[in-house]
Amino acid sequence: MADFNANIPEGELTVKWTKLRSSMPLVNPANKRSIEIVVVGSGLAGASAAATLAEMGYKVKCFCFQDSPRRAHSIAAQGGINAAKNYQNDGDSVYRLFYDTIKGGDYRAREANVHRLAEVSTSIIDQCVAQGVPLAREYGGLLDNRSFGGTQVQRTFYAAGQTGQQLLLGAYSALERQIGMGKVEMFTRHEMLDVVVIEGKARGIIARNLITGELERHFGHAVLLGSGGYGNVFYLSTNAMGSNVTAAWKAHKKGAFFGNPCFTQIHPTCIPVSGDHQSKLTLMSESLRNDGRIWVPKKKDDQRKASDIPEDERDYYLERRYPAFGNLVPRDVASRAAKERCDAGYGVGKSKLAVYLDFAANTERYGRIEATKHNIHNPDKATCVRLGLEVIKEKYGNLFDMYAQITGENPYELPMRIYPAVHYTMGGLWVDYNLMTTIPGLYALGEANFSDHGANRLGASALMQGLADGYFVIPYTIGAYLSKELATKPIPLDHPAFVEAEASVRGILERFVNIKGTKSVDFFHKKLGLIMWEKCGMARNAQGLTEAIAEIQQLRKDFWSDVRVPGVINEFNPELEKAGRVADFIELGELMCIDALNRNESCGGHFREEYQTEEGEALRDDENYAYVAAWEFKEGVKFELHKEELKFENIKIAQRSYK
Amino acid sequence: MSTGNMNLTLKVWRQKDNKAKGSLVDYKLSEISPDMSFLEMFDVLNEQLITKGDEPVVFDHDCREGICGSCSMFINGRPHGPKDLVTTCQLHMRSFKDGDTIVVEPWRAAAFPVIKDLTVDRTAFDRIIAAGGFISVNTGNAQDANALPIPKIQADAAFEAAACIGCGACVATCKNASAMLFTSAKISQLALLPQGQPERYRRAQSMVAQMDAEGFGNCTNTGACEAECPKGISLENIARMNRDFYAAKFVSEEEV
């Protein structure tokens, strides 16, 4: 078995990172020049890591499957990025961010990692502002903040509803600067299809040039995966069409353990599915929950228009069930509550699988404030609404436009209809404190790793983690490994391990095009997605999961005998790319169900129907399941469980309450 | 599989690779739902082509929510189709009528060579950014984020310029295939911010030089780029870029 030690530094929680950073072995500048690092992925984690490592003097090769690093899916993050700046003077601190994140993750994350994340969060904002990222400001010229779920302070920095775009373009510009200086070699439209492991260490990758179809071998003293999450295993998700698990999965099959695969985040506020043709789901930012109130009619099957339903016939169920946090409960709690109402028959819209997100009350409230500013005394309702709509437009205009575009309805007049959708995956490659996987020299960053969010991620924390890993963690921790690699000369690309890895990749690609079956790749992907959503989605139970495992195994057989991949391998062939990704999703889907079945408790986004409190809240079993499930891949798509005990030395582990 | 009632004729540009000669090919589609996005309509087409044993149409797309800038179809003579301020992926079939004929071509510009079908090579944009579209601040060099107050109006203006998604619609629509709207958006964003001042003139010069080297045309103030930009990037940015570019000749001490 590979090395499986979390390598958490000794000492007090608050000094672990500082002490480690100060005692970490270094690589001197002259040696850095001869060390090569392969970075796969160019999102927040990959781009920030590639740029920073190049600034430090390493030779970096960066790969992305998109036509430009600027298109990585981090770009689509809307709401914001957390940081413990306490600019609002509302009692925020590193400890509070740490505490909120551990609690939000339902006590299934590693204390030391999360504390480090909270510590470096403030530097991220400094760095991004220095790069010219135009974060929202107040009239005094200082940075503005807003609220996000699961917290009672305002620590979220944002750029309208396009925070991910602006942060990614910041990291992208830092990356392009290094490309322009010749320090990073960029490979766009390249997809990593295997990790090359030599004498137990990651030494490079096999990548496919997506335009020519050619397979390439690339050496690296270390390999970093910033390849994102695997939400597309559900087919329908808020992820981009190309988001995939392939890089992480290939690493898993080469020996990297996969941590907590069943921890998936279902985001409560997405635009509902409109029909069978649907290819993806669109998120409506969590920031909308600042000003939107969520409700359903108190009467089942109420056919009236939302605006015709009087106040006392509406059930503001989040405010009712969770008075302390109200509409700002964490995502897992909000999603489950929506599902509960819809399952009970109170859903709205054609499909009855939706709830209202209503801005009317806050529109009027804003209007009243505006009226006072304009010296309009005793304004009537119409004036308040008119003035309030301008405020709402300024705050959320782009999101409202997007909603109107997709649904054909005007959200300024009608409440939005929303429903939960797959959004993020907390699980990922298992990494130690240094972000190294169980394959020495192979690291995983950002959403690709499992490390910081436990069983549920808080809003605005994904951007924080991606950039923390790339800008401020890996540049230090990688030195510990590379300082011992100074004597390693670049390994020739005709080394048997490279030859063998390339041959095996070629074998798989040829198999795809030679099956010449009758069903498209999407056909299988949709089928997989349906199994996953129904049996390993917002609620799971042992029977459903057992069925799902059998169904997925059958699906895998059908896929490998009946898929039709047109074209050849030596050409630009997106269907072939998809086939590879779906083949990996099918194997991953099975592991997710196995993991969900193994975890006989409910925690965060993992809700096992058998384990709930009388009020329907998640019921954890800390005695038996306070561990990270790290799965090892075995021949024949089998998986072996390893457990990393989670020790809570600084936070008293408790039933999570947002009441 | 689809559930609607629209019947359409598509004329789609098919081109095997960069060297092949392309042509428009006709396809008939039926039962298209008005709730589908334009790209979902293409998914339906491709599913049909694959089932028939034909090669599906290759097109760039990824986020399908209007922010990644991948999608790039020239629809009935307009980049991203008939609606203002939306990308192809956010264009829905309810913007078309039953019985319509829709012509779909790739972006056309010498600096954006066709790779296959509707996919073009836009890496020239990356090289323009690499030439100077950044602030030279290494990780770890930054001061406290609130140490430098920036007036809201200025920050908002910088944000508006920074909203560019790099899709290339501006180039595709311009009769000169000029990349000035794209280039000027980045130059403006950084010129409007105090952090961008130290490299302001050098940046304008090197980015413009790279833009020219890539083979993009010049600007003749037609304004088609602004009209077709899915993110509403303003023509004012070009004026600002030109000012900085010429000012650089006087204030910059270095030859770039």
TrEMBL record, chain A:
Domain Fumarate reductase/succinate dehydrogenase flavoprotein-like C-terminal, chain residue ranges per copy: 525-658
GO CC terms of this entry: plasma membrane
Catalytic activity: a quinone + succinate = fumarate + a quinol
Cited Pfam families: FAD_binding_2, Succ_DH_flav_C
GO molecular function: electron transfer activity; flavin adenine dinucleotide binding; succinate dehydrogenase (quinone) activity
Membrane association type: Peripheral membrane protein
EC number: 1.3.5.1
Enzyme class label: oxidoreductase
Keyword annotations of the record: Cell membrane, Electron transport, FAD, Flavoprotein, Membrane, Oxidoreductase, Transport
Active site: R331 (proton acceptor)
Cell compartment(s), UniProt: Cell membrane
Gene Ontology annotations of biological process type: anaerobic respiration
Predominant place of localization: membrane
Domain FAD-dependent oxidoreductase 2 FAD-binding as annotated: residue spans: 37-463
SUPFAM superfamilies the record matches: FAD/NAD(P)-binding domain, Succinate dehydrogenase/fumarate reductase flavoprotein C-terminal domain, Succinate dehydrogenase/fumarate reductase flavoprotein, catalytic domain
NCBIfam families, A to Z: PRK07573.1, sdhA_Bsu
Family indicated by similarity: Belongs to the FAD-dependent oxidoreductase 2 family. FRD/SDH subfamily.
PANTHER family: SUCCINATE DEHYDROGENASE 2 FLAVOPROTEIN SUBUNIT, SUCCINATE DEHYDROGENASE FLAVOPROTEIN SUBUNIT
This protein's name: succinate dehydrogenase
TrEMBL record, chain B:
UniProt cofactor(s): [3Fe-4S] cluster; [2Fe-2S] cluster
GO molecular function: 2 iron, 2 sulfur cluster binding; electron transfer activity
Domain of life: Bacteria
Residue span(s) of domain 4Fe-4S ferredoxin-type: 155-185
One of the protein's GO biological processes: aerobic respiration
Similarity-based family: Belongs to the succinate dehydrogenase/fumarate reductase iron-sulfur protein family.
Provenance organism: Pedobacter westerhofensis
Signal peptide: none
Lineage: Bacteria, Pseudomonadati, Bacteroidota, Sphingobacteriia, Sphingobacteriales
Listed PANTHER family: SUCCINATE DEHYDROGENASE, SUCCINATE DEHYDROGENASE IRON-SULFUR PROTEIN
PROSITE patterns, sorted: 2FE2S_FER_1, 4FE4S_FER_2
Protein name: Succinate dehydrogenase / fumarate reductase iron-sulfur subunit
InterPro entries on file: 2Fe-2S_ferredoxin-like_sf, 2Fe2S_fd_BS, 4Fe4S_Fe-S-bd, Beta-grasp_dom_sf, Helical_ferredxn, SDH/FRD_Iron-Sulfur, Succ_DH/fum_Rdtase_N
